[in-house]
Every structure is written in structure tokens, then in C-alpha cells.
Amino acid sequence: MAAVLASQSYCCCNMDLMNQGRAMGTLGFSSSISDEFTRFDWQASNRPISAAKSIKFHVEMRQTELPSKLGGNGRLGINGKVSIKKRDVKMVPASEVMNRKSPNSNKVNMVHGSRQVVNGASIVKRDPTPALSKTLNFRDYKELPPLEDLKVLPSDEGFSWANENYNSWQRTVDVWSFVISLRGRVLLDNAKWAYLGGFTEEKQRNRRQQTASWLRESVLQLGPTFIKLGQLSSTRSDLFPREFVNELAKLQDRVPAFSPEKARSLIEKELGAPVKILFKEFEDRPIAAASLGQVHRAILHNGEKVVVKVQRPGLKKLFEIDLRNLKLIAEYFQRSETFGGPTRDWIGIYEECSTILYQEIDYINEGRNADKFRRDFRNVKWVRVPLVFWDYTAIKVLTLEYVPGIKINGLDMLDSRGFNRSRIASRAIEAYLIQILKTGFFHADPHPGNLAIDTDEAIIYYDFGMMGEIKSFTRERLLELFYAVYEKDAKKVMQSLIDLEALQPTGDMSSVRRSVQYFLDNLLSQTPDQQQTLAAIGEDLFAIAQDQPFRFPSTFTFVMRAFSTLEGIGKILDPDFSFAKVAAPYAQELLDTKQQQRAGTQLLGEIRKQADDARTYTISMPYRVQRIEEFVRQLESGDLKLRVRVLESERASHKASIRQMGTIYTVFGGTLLNLGVTLSNQGNQIIANGSFIGAAVFFTLFLRSMQRVKNLDKFEKMI
Ligand SMILES: Nc1ncnc2c1ncn2[C@@H]1O[C@H](COP(=O)(O)OP(=O)(O)OP(=O)(O)O)[C@@H](O)[C@H]1O
């Protein structure tokens, strides 16, 4: 079949692509009718394709269902090689391919590349039968965009942290200089506002903005540990002002890359063989560099295109030095009023961060996470998770299937492919709802760099270093919280928050309850067109938390942050996007489940009642049973409880008055004792003796009172 297809095919390829002379690329094609696609490996010689006599396609084993209109019937496994003669190849400049509709095509030729690279091709199947004369649109499926078009990443040379032989003392000095400067800046800002006064809100914002920019630059200078912590802090709107959070979020794109020599030597050390033996091809220039590692493209000997994520050399040692200092910093912040002092749990935050950091530098852990995440979504066709190549993976090297896509916020590219943006936005949120409500295993960092869109509008996930898990216990509590919010019941909301350890119960919770009630009233009284964004709701929540004994667990803040990031992405993709609309069926499902549970409980109650009634009729009721029933009735109506309560409070007040008398006896006894001593010193022995006797009587009375209190306590324990 493949041969037939080839012999009858006419191919037009993108000239830019042809002239690159790359040894290998992959093209895919999709039928414009069925939208099923087949993948082709495009093999050419090392010289430019324009100089080659023919272009060979190695057809991959993916099955396709050729539409019957095209002569196909049912499933078809295509395997083998397809050669297309050069005279059948028409070269078209990339720009033309992108904008032009081929005369026989009912679709614009597909373009690809998350980095503005335009590669496209189409095959026009020539067939004498008019019914079969259809266009099959080719699209480069796993094409490696030319490196020249990729952004050149800044190098890490010149940064002190890039040198692996860290001098522990020098590093400590660098870190503490930063902390002292930060403290100085914050103190100066506070002093200016307090003493000079007259600062408008806008001026304060500008000043905060300056400090935030300074902080981002300093963090970049301090290197991986601080960059990662900065990125993590950009999720904590509950801890830092908005300007800081926004600046720190920019760290995502600004991390310098390390040299290919370092990358190659680390791969060799980790995988036990030189790169040129391990891979058929390995690109020295990384396609991305992040705080903890960088990503290189490569091709395995079997032709599989992969990405190799290589960890920054010497990270563990750097973490050890930095975390030692960070612990001291957290302890210092905990004591310092400037940094929120005892109202913030800095030590707890330090511990969370250190756990995350160590988890993130274990790529085996990341690979396992990717596998689990892929399993969770195996039945959801529109979510794609790269495969892990375990034979090429170690603690510091992770090799994954190369699954390129368009960045989820790359609007121009999405539009040029005719993608349905609103569907993409809904899918992004829905995938997240599945993680939170169903699988309980969620991607804790779904920023736009970690989400891309595949050729069939599927969502591709990258980076599984930071995953969150919602244990079934927590999930149940979260559901309770959801139901309580739905029922607008502030008391239940508070109880769920206490169970989730998000709220610390203190003596007087009335102010917290008022804040929660206010929040609920505002949240639920809105009409659909007044609905706040999730980000705004999150901010309200965090604002409430500022003055209350709340400490949101990191899981909660990650979930909130993830939802508001995705909601932001949703709004960029589709201005009419509504989170509530996507979430509604899930919320309804949860409410239905609750309803069913309630119905189940009611049924149980009914059965119990009927059993009781049956017993009433069949068993004769002697006097004793009647008494017991009367007793139970009183218990149920609360009479008995009321009386017990009265007795309890009576006993408590009785004890308090005995204690009060005891105190009075001691005061009198002490005074008489003092008087006796003074009189005795003055030689007035007879009156002094009288005072001593009086003192003895009062002390005896005091001892008796204490004994009575003790007896009452004993009695209370007995009943
Ligand atoms: N399997 C893949 N196929 C194609 N591109 C990939 C793949 N994995 C990663 N990338 C690209 O590399 C970039 C960085 O990858 P990744 O997020 O996994 O690195 P990271 O070091 O964990 O970064 P960070 O922790 O800062 O998010 C991604 O945004 C994506 O563009």
C-alpha cells in the first residue's frame, strides 16, 4: 500500500527544510478527511536534499485507518520504505507553504514549530478516479527545527556558582551579603514610609517594584538553589507582595546554560559510555536551560528522537552549602519583625523547600512521576506525556521521547494552524480537574513553559520534577470543604480547614468565622457575569490569611496557583473563557455523589426505624423497659443533658467559691502570722500567741478547703 501511495504521490516540500541538508527528520501526514495520521521518518543523505536524487520516507509502524473514499478499508498497518523521485518533488518557500492553499487541498498546509519555524509539506495523491482525487495534508510531525532558529541561551560563564569547586566560606559570605542587603532595603523602605510619610500608594508600589527587580537580579547571581527557590516563591502570593511574585516568575526564562563539554562529560559519567556511542546524534546546543538542568535533543540508534535532560554539574554540593545557610536564614527570619517574625512559619517553609529541592534533582524520581502521570491519563487521548527511556536515564540524566509542540500561550502559531483555542483552554483546565479530583496526582508547576499543544490539539506535559499528591484522607477533607462552601456554612468550612491543618484553632475563632462568612457571602452571591477570577478569589483568601491564624499547606497553595495560572492561560487563549463552565460538570458529579451518599444514609435510618418498630410490637413491655424508653426519650430531647450540664456548672461554681474562700483564709492566716511575729519581737507575747492561734485556725481552714476541692475532683472523675 505504501508503495502504491508513493508511486502515485506528488510531494511538495518546504524549501527551507530541504536546504538544511539534515541527515534525518520526521514528517507525518494526516488525511484531511479522517484526521488520522501516520508518521513517516524522513531519511536523506548527509548532503542537502536539494542535491539528492530521491527522498526516502521510512514509514513508521503506526496504524492508520485509510478512509474508504481513498480506497482504504479498515485498519491498515503500514511498514516499509517509500521513495519519491526528485522530479516529483516541488519545492516551495516556507512562507508560501504557510499561507497558500494548494489547489487540490481543502486545508491549509500544516506548519509546525514552537519556535516560529515554518516547515510544511503536502502530498497530493493523484488518482484517475475523481472520487479518490483528494489531498492528503502532510505535516512535519516530529521535525527537529533547525538550531539556527532557536533562541541562543545565555552562558553560565562568569557566574561564581558555575564553578563546581565551590569555596564554602566564599559562598557563605555571598549568601549572607545578599540577606543583609535585602534586610537593609526592606528596613529602609519601611522607615521611609513610617517617618517621611506622604507616600502615595503608587510610589510605594514603584519602590516595591524596584526592590523586586533587584531581588530577581540578585537571585540570578546567586545561582540554581536561589533561582529555584525564587521560582517556588513565585507561587506564594500568601507570603509575598504581588510585585515580588511577578518578578520572581520571570526567573523561568532567564537561566543561563552550561557548556556542552560539561553536559557530555556528565552524561558519560552517569550512563557509563561516551555520548557518541550512546546516541546516533546529539545536539550540543540545548533547546532549553532551567535552574537545575538543561535539555538537549538527540537521536537514538534506532532512530527515535529524544530529549536528554542533563543536570547542572555539582548541584548536590551547592545545595548542601546553600541549605545550611538557608536554615540559618529561616531561623533569623522567624525571629525578625522585619520579615513577619513569628506570624510566619519560615522554618516550616524552609523544610518544605529543602524537600522539594532534593526531590527535583533526582531524575529517576522524575521519570517515575512521568510514568505514573502517563498511566493516569492513559484513557484520555488529548493528554500526552513523553515516554521515559530508562536505559538512558540515571539520577542526573533523564532521556525522554521528543514530543515537540507549540507553547500553550503561542497564540500566533496556534492560530496559523487553525487550532480551536477555546477547546485548548477547556482541556487544560479539565486535565487539571482530573488530576485534583480523580487521580490525586497533580503537576505542581503547570506554567506555560511546561505545557505545549500537539498537532491534534492534545496537551503535552513536560517536567515532572515537582508533583503533588492528594492522599485520600486529604481528598475527603477537601470534598467536605467543597460541600461546606457550597452550603455556605462558615462553621463547617472552618472545621474542614482545621482538619486540613490549614487553620490553627485558637481560643477565639469568631473573627475568623466572620472573615470566612464574608468570603462565602461574596463568593456565592455573584451572578455568572460578576464571577471573580480564581486568581482574585485566591488573593482574597490569602488576604484573609494575613491577619488570621491560617497557614495554607503547600499542597493547597500549589493547587491554587496552578488553577489561577491555568485560568490566566485560558483567558489569553479565549477571552470568553469561564473556569466555572468547565468545572461545572465535575462539581455536579461531586454533588450527585454526596446526594447518593445521603440517600444511602437515609435508607439505613429507615431500616433501623422499621426494625425498632417491629420489636415494639412483638416484645411485651415490662415496666423497666418503659422506664428505659422514657430515659432514652429524655436523653434524645436533651432534657437529661441539660440537667447534667446544670449540675456540672453548679459543681464548677461551687469549687470556684471554695477556692476563693481558701485564698481568703490564706490571706488572713498570713496577716495574723506576720502580726504575731512583729508582736513577739516587740515583747508582746500574749497577744502574739493569740495571733499565732488565729493564723493556725485560718491555715487549717485553708487546708480543709483544698481537701474539699480535691474530693470534688475525685467525684467528678467517678461520674
Ligand atoms: N520530551 C520533550 N520533548 C520536547 N521538548 C521538551 C521535552 N521535555 C522538555 N522539553 C523542552 O524543554 C523545556 C524545559 O524542560 P523541563 O521543564 O523538563 O526542564 P526543567 O529543568 O525541569 O525546567 P524547570 O524546572 O525550570 O521547569 C520545556 O519547556 C520544553 O520546551
From TrEMBL:
Gene Ontology biological process terms from the UniProt entry: membrane lipid biosynthetic process; regulation of response to reactive oxygen species
Top-rank taxon: Eukaryota
SUPFAM superfamilies: Protein kinase-like (PK-like)
GO cellular component: membrane
Keyword hit for Membrane: yes
Transmembrane segments: 686-703
InterPro entries: ABC1_dom, Kinase-like_dom_sf, UbiB_kinase
Domain ABC1 atypical kinase-like residue range list: 250-496
UniProt keyword terms in alphabetical order: Membrane, Transmembrane, Transmembrane helix
Membership in a protein family: Belongs to the protein kinase superfamily. ADCK protein kinase family.
Name of the protein: ABC1 atypical kinase-like domain-containing protein
Organism of origin: Tripterygium wilfordii
